[in-house]
Write a structure and sequence with these properties.
The structure is a homodimer. By secondary structure, the first copy, chain A, is an alpha+beta fold. The first copy, chain A, is built from five helices and nine strands; from the N terminus they run βαββαββαβββααβ.
């Protein structure tokens, strides 16, 4: 009876998010269906965290326990044989007996892509806000997010989470003529956190809010002060790191 | 009565190719439908050339004649309001009275993307052959294609074309750990020409054919000597150049 760790890549466009739901197409649901076909048993997987409908992943991590004894490459290729084109196993590894995909994650890295112009090829993986924006002020405003903060202002209050405290370890920006890539690494992310941060930063970029006002929003711990939630299509879970 | 030139970007994944066909979703069909809604008249467009089902474009060029007098930006934005997400007008310009999108094209540039590994995000825009290949020998073999040649060996004989002579002006390769980008500029391209060239080059890359054998295939003017036609999804019409 072994514990297996899988790294998954998926295109969130046609998924109703991560978690199994009756009569919805979800990533967890597709993986568990493929595991049932491969292993002949019902297996429940544990993800590093949920992703919302439309959010993509390059490196989501899951673990599960199985009686099945197969070479690790067969877990990857065997499951990929059953999985649809929009979710695949990139890597299969053996995990230590105590491994827990969610609890043991030291940090997660997400990327959000804002397009500077209308785009057809790759439109599924970026969002075009149909406005001009200045990235310099957005980059400057985002600096205050680094470190440990209460991110209540930038979270959808869904009743479940009791604390919105997280530590943002790193933020990087990569800007080209075509697009702006915002990459953020933190210990925890809460519901819609990155999408609300980007929505508020875009208001700064358009001159609707000042850098000082952005800083005040973080301190206010009040969701109503922040900007709108930008669409899921620009967001991708890049990797999950374990200590 | 003016002549308008449009530059189009489209994702070929869900199109049955370029040309209008009854009860099929085609790029030409979608553009003409949007023009009818915008201009209130039936307008026939002329493309620089057809693209097959599944082939994408970043810079397809079309022209049409209309009684409608609108600012050029309104042709772009107005049509985009009617067009679906997978085909958009990038630019609208006025064309000279004698302009002909197909006859006046001096050259076309296409790109084919071969992926080095299984890929989910962006899988629509590249093809993964599920084998290893050496690009050095492919690059060397492709050199013989430069210049004016009879490309019969690399074309699908469809009865229509009488000559398969074209001049390849340039070939460039851009290789990364993730993918190989093959870009080719020529005066003319015939049916499946790039997809058969890539299929044959991949046989060279796998050591199934030598560089000398590749050169002999070009000289043979015999389709049966060449390799298979690779899938359309990796192919994109990058631009059409006019003198």
């Amino acid at each position: 009876m072994g514990l297996i760790k899988l790294t998954l890549e998926y295109d969130g466009t046609h998924f109703s998010g991560w978690q199994v739901q009756p009569s919805e197409r979800t990533v967890q649901g597709e993986i568990e269906k493929a595991l049932k076909l491969l292993a002949g048993e019902d297996i429940r997987i544990m993800g590093s965290g949920r992703t919302d409908a439309g959010v993509h992943a390059l490196g989501q991590v899951v673990s599960f326990r199985t009686h099945l004894s197969l070479p690790l490459s067969a877990f990857r290729d065997g499951l990929n044989g059953y999985l649809p084109e929009d979710v695949k196993v990139i890597q299969a590894e053996e995990a230590g007996e105590s491994f827990h995909a969610r609890r043991d994650a030291a940090s997660r890295t997400y990327r959000y892509i804002i397009c500077r112009k209308l785009k057809v090829l790759g439109r599924q993986y970026g969002w075009y806000p149909r406005c001009n924006f200045i990235t310099d002020s957005m980059i400057k405003a985002a600096e205050c997010l680094i470190g440990e903060h209460d991110f209540t202002s930038f979270c959808k209050i869904s009743g479940e989470a009791k604390s919105f405290v997280s530590r943002i370890l790193d933020i990087t920006w990569d800007t080209t003529d075509e697009e702006v890539r915002f990459e953020v690494t933190a210990t925890h992310f809460f519901h819609n956190m990155i999408r609300i941060i980007i929505g508020t930063l875009l208001e700064v970029g358009q001159g609707k809010k000042s850098i000082d006002e952005f800083r005040d929003i973080l301190k206010a711990k009040d969701r109503s002060k922040a900007g709108p939630t930008v669409p899921a299509r620009g967001l991708v879970l890049v990797r999950v790191s374990y200590a």
